[in-house]
Design brief:
Blueprint (H helix, E strand, L loop, with lengths): L9 H14 L16 H10 L5 E5 L2 E8 L2 H11 L7 H16 L7 E3 L4 H7 L3 H10 L9 E2 L2 E3 L11 H8 L3 E3 L10 E8 L3 H12 L4 E9 L2
Parallel strand pairs: 2-8, 3-4, 3-7, 7-8
Antiparallel strand pairs: 1-2, 5-6
GO molecular function: glycosyltransferase activity
Family: Belongs to the ComF/GntX family.
Keywords: Glycosyltransferase, Transferase
Length: about 230
C-alpha cells in the first residue's frame, strides 16, 4: 500500500483512507448497523424510494433526470459516498445512476457524459473525484458501447462552500466561475451533464453555460437525486 507523500496530496489521502478502511469495523452507511456496508433493511428502503420512472424537471431549457428525490435512504447513500468517505458504496451509487442514464442515453452508444465540478479545494482535500468514479462505474453497467466520461469542468477563483447557501446565494457564488479545462476538445454531438445531486440547480446551470460557451450542445442533466 503506497501512501508516502504529504498528507494533503492525492496519493496520501487515498493511502490513509485505505488504512482507515482496514482498521475500522464495517458498518451500514444507511443506519450505522454492524456487519455490512449497506444492510438489507436499508436496501429495502432504497428500493422503495427509487421511483418506477425517472423524476424529471427542467433547467436552462434542458431536462433534468434523477433516480429519486434527495431524501431518506437515497440521500444517506449519496451523502455517505461523497462526503462521508464511504467509497466502498461506489457500486451501489453506480446502480442508482444507471436508472436515469439509461433513459438519457437510450439505445444510442457512446454518448459523451461530462461530470459536474467540485471546488478546487474540495478536490484536493478528497484526493479523488468520487462523482466521476461513480459515473464511470455506471457506464460499465449500460448496454452497448461504453459512454465516454469527461471530468473537465473546474471551478475557478474563490468560491464559498455551497452548503447552507440559499438558491440566490448559490447562483451568485458560482456565476461565471465554472470553466472547461483548457485543451479539451468538445465532442461533435450532444453531451449530458452528470452530478450526484441537483439541489438548487446553481452548479448545473453554471456548468451548462460553461459547456455551451465552448460550443457544446447540452442534451440534459442526469443526477442520482434532486431537490429541485
Amino acid at each position: 500500500m503506497g501512501f508516502a507523500g504529504p498528507v494533503g496530496d492525492g496519493a496520501g489521502v487515498r493511502g490513509w483512507r485505505a488504512l482507515a478502511d482496514l482498521a475500522l469495523p464495517l458498518t451500514c452507511a444507511g443506519c450505522g448497523g454492524p456487519g455490512s456496508r449497506w444492510c438489507p433493511g436499508c436496501a429495502d428502503l432504497l428500493a422503495r424510494e427509487l421511483l418506477p420512472g425517472v423524476v424529471t424537471g427542467r433547467l436552462e431549457g434542458v431536462p433534468v433526470l434523477a433516480a429519486g428525490d434527495h431524501t431518506g435512504a437515497l440521500r444517506r447513500l449519496v451523502t455517505a459516498y461523497k462526503d462521508g468517505e464511504r467509497r466502498d458504496l461506489r457500486p451501489l451509487v453506480a446502480r442508482v445512476l444507471v436508472r436515469p442514464l439509461t433513459v438519457a442515453v437510450g439505445p444510442r452508444e457512446g454518448v459523451p457524459l461530462v461530470v459536474a465540478p467540485s471546488r478546487g479545494a474540495t478536490r484536493r482535500q478528497r484526493g479523488d473525484s468520487p462523482v466521476a468514479d461513480a459515473v464511470r462505474a455506471a457506464t460499465r453497467l449500460l448496454p452497448g458501447t461504453r459512454s465516454s466520461v469527461a471530468d473537465v469542468l473546474r471551478v475557478s477563483g474563490a468560491v464559498r462552500d455551497q452548503t447552507g447557501l440559499g438558491r440566490a446565494a448559490r447562483a451568485a457564488n458560482l456565476a461565471g466561475r465554472v470553466r472547461v479545462r483548457p485543451g479539451w476538445e468538445p465532442p461533435a454531438g450532444p453531451v449530458w451533464l452528470v452530478d450526484d445531486v441537483v439541489t438548487t440547480g446553481a452548479t448545473a446551470t453554471a456548468s451548462v453555460e460553461a459547456l455551451r460557451a465552448v460550443g457544446c450542445t447540452v442534451a440534459g442533466v442526469v443526477s442520482a437525486t434532486r431537490v429541485l
